[in-house]
């Protein structure tokens, strides 16, 4: 079972807030958030758990295949507005989130947050089977499979099996020859977003640097 951490304060922290008159307003906000996060949402298809109805709605699209958000510059489609915003930056090259320690830049704030743990040494996700600890829940899920060797996602067209649904979706493109990612500059198409990023960086950005 994957241990899930909720960023809620512990009882000693709340007690400290009670004793500190300067912390009255933060304490109220924290407790208000605790009251808000009451219901636990569980995915009927996998072991995903969250505390917000919108989060479970977005997650369920992984199972249904629904992708209501589409890029106006290429054929890319996705399940959330956040993913679309991150994708659109592959066309513009924009990376607004910057690490103050080393200059690392990213398109998503969550990527910067994870990166910052490299500097702080924080590893909030721990395996209950061994002493392994990591910075993200996805890394922990992949690690857990080492203990259980569970490959629940299988291809109906061949013997391919994997532990994560996105890997199966990526694999299926091999059978369909679908190439959903397209370069807005030259029309180059590919199966994976990483391939498109590499193409833009090595071909178009390299040309811009040379001309400059």
Automatic annotation (TrEMBL):
One of the Pfam families matching this protein, by short name: zf-C2H2
Alphabetic keyword roster: DNA-binding, Metal-binding, Nucleus, Repeat, Transcription, Transcription regulation, Zinc, Zinc-finger
Gene Ontology CC, one term: nucleus
Listed InterPro entries: Ikaros_C2H2-ZF, Znf_C2H2_sf, Znf_C2H2_type
GO BP, sorted A to Z: regulation of transcription by RNA polymerase II
Primary location group: nucleus
Location in the cell: Nucleus
The C2H2-type domain, residue ranges: 41-68, 69-96, 97-124, 125-152, 153-180, 181-209
GO terms for MF: DNA-binding transcription factor activity; RNA polymerase II cis-regulatory region sequence-specific DNA binding; zinc ion binding
The name this protein goes by in its record: C2H2-type domain-containing protein
Upper lineage: Eukaryota, Metazoa, Ecdysozoa, Arthropoda, Hexapoda
